[in-house]
Amino acid sequence: MKNAPFQILLILCASSAIVAGQTLEDYLRIAAENNPGLQARHKSYKAALQHVSQVNSLADPTFSFGYFLSPVETRVGPQRARLSLSQMFPWFGTLKARGDAAALSAQAEFQVFIQARNKLYYQVASAYYPLYELGGTRKIEEQNIDILESFKTLALENFRNGTGSLVDVLQVDILLREAESNLKILELKEKPLRSAFNQLLNRASDEPVTIADTVAVPIFDAHPELFENHPTLQELNYRIESAVKAERVAAKNGLPRLGVGLDYVIISERGDMSSAENGKDVVMPMISISLPLYRKPYRAAQEEARMRQQAYRLQKQQARNTLEADVEMAAFEIERHLELLALYERQIAESRDALDLLLTAYGNSGKEFDQVLHMRQQLLNYEKMRIASISQGSVAVEKIKYLTAQRSLDEIID
User: Fold this and answer.
1) Which of 29, 164, 355, 414 could form a disulfide bond with 366, CB atoms 3.0-4.6 angstroms apart?
2) How far apart are CA 335 and CA 26, in angstroms?
3) What pTM, to 2 d.p., does this model score?
4) Residue 289 domain-assigned (yes or no)
5) Integer Cα distance of 209 and 199 in angstroms
6) Where do the DSSP E strands lie in 169-304?
7) How many CB atoms are closer than 10 A to CB 366?
């Protein structure tokens, strides 16, 4: 698969019956709007955006006030108080580098949100199709009970006519009790399946769920290049770029910081002199510079950023390898179910023909009723396996969509 695309054929899972109930896409929209886990991921992304304006802003200026308890005498009078205002500035380009690193981290958080959304869609689909399978199996079992009832009527008529055996009637009763028990089990199974499905939509566990009568597994092409758009790979790309910016920030943090300030000294007048400058306040501009002499913290921060880059690159390679292996397995599952569906369709058609022939023969002779029942059970099993294969094949297609990020944001959620 790494060298060529694989194709998944179209499966029409039912005849041209009218589709009833809500579609899977309807439920995906509900899940996207209501699921608290997904909403939490989106809030995390919004919180990461707020961090950008925190790191690319200047530090607050410093204001200080000092009062001389014992005035310091100067030529123009005693100093009474001192007011100072100063502002430190990082090295040129430091703020921009910090903002870029934070913005890239926020983009990585957005990709985490997208991945969480895609995973939620897959979970909803994985819970939707078992409900579809249960509904289809229930209909098959209900039809089976009706058919067995008709078989029982036929067996009773043949017994009364002397062409059949009472054993035939008892055999049908055995199968009827088994079918009724299976139907009750299906009804019990619906509650936990419906509850698990509703939990994903953040609804009450007993909320009614309506499933479409037909399911179609569409054509799907998966190319290796589609992995480049996968949220996990995109997230790691952003984290690598953010780590590159963080290395630059660490280097700039090791450069001097510049400060400018202003001192204002309040001076009282002297009573023993007369001068134009007597009691004149003093204004003193100041410039300061930090001396980053201790280099160990800055070198360690740069090395940390470089190691993070290497770690993210390795994680990206591992994620890509895992995605490719998982897609291969999902593709196999789809192809396997395609083969099984083709087999079940042939087996169902031939079993129906054989059952019609056996019923005709039994109606004429009243013999070999056990073969009629055996063929009926065989047909029932093929019908059940067919609906199960449709469900499992549909889940496999949804898994490939999840692994290759084929459900776009605009398709489901605004």
Assistant:
1) 164
2) 27
3) 0.83
4) no
5) 12
6) 216-217, 220-222, 258-267, 282-289
7) 19
- Give the whole-angstrom CA distance, residue 10 versus residue 216: 8
Q: Count helices and strands (H / E) in the chain.
A: 8, 8
Task: Determine which helix (DSSP H) or strand (DSSP E) holds 361, and give its type and residue range.
Answer: helix 296-365
Q: Are 268 and 287 in contact (CB under 8 A)?
A: no
Burial class (CB in 10 A: 0-12, 13-18, 19+), 226: middle
154, 209, 182, 175: which is closest to 27 by C-alpha?
209
Residue 282 domain flag? no
Could you state, in chain order, the average pLDDT of each consecutive group of 10 residues for the chain (414 residues)? 34 33 85 94 94 89 89 78 92 92 95 94 95 95 95 90 86 95 96 96 93 69 65 95 95 92 87 73 89 91 95 96 91 90 95 93 84 94 95 91 74 40
Amino acid at the residue 178: E
- CATH code, domain with 107: 1.20.1600.10
221 belongs to a structural domain: yes
The dihedral region occupied by 100, where left means phi > 0, alpha psi between -120 and 50, and beta the remainder, is: alpha
CB-based burial label for 125 (10 Å; 0-12, 13-18, 19+): buried
